[in-house]
Amino acid sequence: MGKFLQLKRCLAAAVIAFLGVTATWADATVVYEADMSQANEPDGWKCYKPKDDKGTWTTGIWRFSSYYHGYYLNQSKYTGGANDYCITKGIELEKGKTYTVTTTMNYTGGSAPTVTLELLNNISKCDASYVVASKDLNPNKDTKADETNEFTVSESGTYYFAIHLNNPVDPQDGTRITYLYGFKVETEEGANPDPEPGVDVNVYEADMSQANEPDGWKCYKPKDTDMGKGSSDNRSLKLSHICFVY
Known about the structure:
Helix content: under 10%
Largest sheet: 6 strands, antiparallel
Radius of gyration: 26 Å
Structural class: mainly beta
Strand content: 35-45%
Number of strands: 14
Shape: elongated
Number of helices: 1
């Protein structure tokens, strides 16, 4: 399971424990994964660049390195600006589901690249009109690391993810190489869909307008205070008193 999904579950568990309710977690399912640590190009991926762009995403071993990097893009003041796309194969996504996308990247040399992770509904050409959603990526320098982002689609269908490196200005501080080592898409099977926008979800309610003390509530005061005990007949909170729900 991705670290992002684990963090979400920990936060949700804390809220659920506080409210005293139970929940059953759905299993995280890997929808698609491409391991680029080995010397084989992922099946169905495509690389796209404008005609006037000298560089492009490439797989293999860079000539100054002794190990395989997956996809990489080399940019320097000699290659010019970059506006290049590294695009996944078509992936089937379902309406209303939230997908966690993990990218494993880094860069070496020069200043940080401008990279975005874009969700596309068509790749007949790389055009902004086909971009359904976009998230900024921030790869580490030298040390490769995972980065997670979430996407939700409004319609079921075939979608594509693109690693878009867009650096129109030549790097003047040396040769910069951006690397992509791995890519994974996960979702939680069987998870309850999020409520429609504008729909209130009532988790707990206590009606105190009647002369009944809410079930399960308790009032607490420190031993060293002589203020009166809180009760259902006097519901204003007083100094050093805490009224809370179990």
